[in-house]
Design a protein that fits this description.
- This protein is mostly helical and about 60 residues long.
- It has one domain (about 5-60).
- About 80% of the residues lie in helices and about 0% in strands.
- The longest helix has 28 residues, at about 5-35.
């Protein structure tokens, strides 16, 4: 891979990670504020939203070479 295109790929990866963190935070907030409507599934959706946050943080922290 050439060095010219690597900056755009790195920026896109960091931007996508930021989007995932924002979506995961919103999903976590709405999951834990609407536990009455979700019932027994609130733990499942809470776990999935935390996985989305972790994936976004991994994309932000990861170093692209």
């Amino acid at each position: 891979m050439s060095e010219e295109g690597s900056f755009g790929l790195t920026a896109a990866e960091k931007f996508f990670g930021l989007i995932l963190v924002i979506v995961g935070a919103l999903a976590t907030y709405f999951t834990f504020t609407s536990t009455q409507a979700l019932g027994a599934y609130s733990g499942f959706f809470g776990f999935l939203s935390i996985v989305i946050i972790a994936l976004g943080l991994f994309l932000i922290i990861a170093k692209t070479e």
